[in-house]
Amino acid sequence: MGSLWIGPPGRMREVRDAATEFDRSISLGIEEFAALSGGITTTRLATPPRRLSLSWSAMAQAEAQWVEALVRNVFGPGPLAVIDPASRNLLEGGQSQGYGPRSAYHAGMWGTLTERADRVMTITDPRDGDQLGYDHAHWFGWPVTPGLPVHVATAIPDGQCQLVFYAADELYLGDAGPAPTLTAMPPAGAAFAVFRVILRAWTGTKLVGPAVLRMGDPIEPGDLGALGSGYPAMTVTSYTDKARPPHRDITLSLVEVRRTPR
Asked: Looking at the record's lineage, which domain of life comes first (predicted)?
């Protein structure tokens, strides 16, 4: 994609100025404990929050004003939807590979969705029309914005992708698909898309397998299986703004927020 997209769901905007510094490190939260015997044990966060630190030199006024408006909560206090310019797959890491946790999916099916002991997700004995949905960690759907195309694909045998679009107040606006690889443009007023796969009937157990969700650039051969880096809801933790008319030097730091731990 090449650019940062940031803003409230339905009102994201592309920041075209390339950041002079871009740090997307993950806070692992690892703690070491040394026993008197010399043994070392560690603990770590089950789901490490993602962080972004960016800086821009001589940012154009229009883009600088957009960043400032987000920092000042001009559009409301809610967390921001952020598309990392380095991301190839906006699904969570487990979702992108067909792994758990089970709570990252919702199943509307007669068949059985199971997380095995090795975290691999399987589907057993579905019927025609059964549905597997991919859940966002914070919102009820995946944030979208009109004008930015959404691309999805699945490796589920005979699976067909579908996108269902909703306004910010969860009003249904329309849907697209189904198709094994699907591209759809969010309609006017869309803020979220629900991503689900429509299944065909089979007997026995099959792997859920890899999936892709991407904004902007279309899905290319070989992208199915790209590790998902997530599509975090983020809040600003620090901001600096040094004016050099007609430009501004800006730094921005964000951290991921989630409603409930997984």
From this structure: Bacteria
